[in-house]
Amino acid sequence: MIETEGVAKLRTAIRERGRVEGTLLKVDDFLNHRVEPELLQAVGASLAAAHTGSVVDLVLTAEASGIPPALETARVLGVPLIYAKKYPRDGSIRPAFVREVSSPTKGVEYRVEVAHRVLPPRHRVLVVDDFLSRGRTAEALGEIVVEAQCELTGFGFVIEKAFMDGRRRLERHGWTVRSLAVISSLDGGEVEMQDSPAGTMSRGAQADPG
Question: pTM higher than 0.85, yes or no?
Answer without folding.
Answer: yes
